[in-house]
Structure to design on (125 residues):
């Protein structure tokens, strides 16, 4: 399983007992440090945390049964390219699970919050 935009790893840790292995990625080194600590504290050993994006990481085509992209699509510049990349990474018959709030009223708040998150290293530049 692949999770991109894993943040502090909470979702990966929840799913870990139910899958063979998870590659959990995020652009933020700070978030991945937190995720690694949380996984160690929980005794979870089947997650590989990797820093980068869908575009920058060397990930083999058709190598994942499932891809998670939770609460991340609204932060990406090119959503269509991200979804195309997910499709490349999925094995035939694999699934992509995503949930992202794209309500117009929320977008303004995100637009104001994202520069602060970027400055702190918690969101992509």
């Amino acid at each position: 399983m692949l999770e991109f935009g894993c943040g502090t790893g909470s979702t990966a840790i929840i799913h870990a007992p139910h899958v063979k292995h998870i590659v959990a990625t995020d652009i933020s080194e700070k978030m991945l440090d937190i995720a690694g600590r949380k996984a160690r504290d929980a005794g979870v050993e089947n997650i590989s945390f990797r820093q980068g994006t869908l575009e920058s990481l060397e990930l083999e085509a058709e190598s994942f049964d499932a891809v998670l992209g939770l609460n991340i699509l609204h932060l990406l510049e090119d959503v269509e390219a991200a979804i195309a990349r997910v499709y490349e990474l999925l094995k035939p018959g694999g699934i992509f699970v995503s949930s992202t709030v794209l309500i117009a009223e929320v977008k303004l708040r995100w637009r104001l919050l994202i520069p602060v998150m970027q400055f702190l290293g918690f969101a992509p530049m």
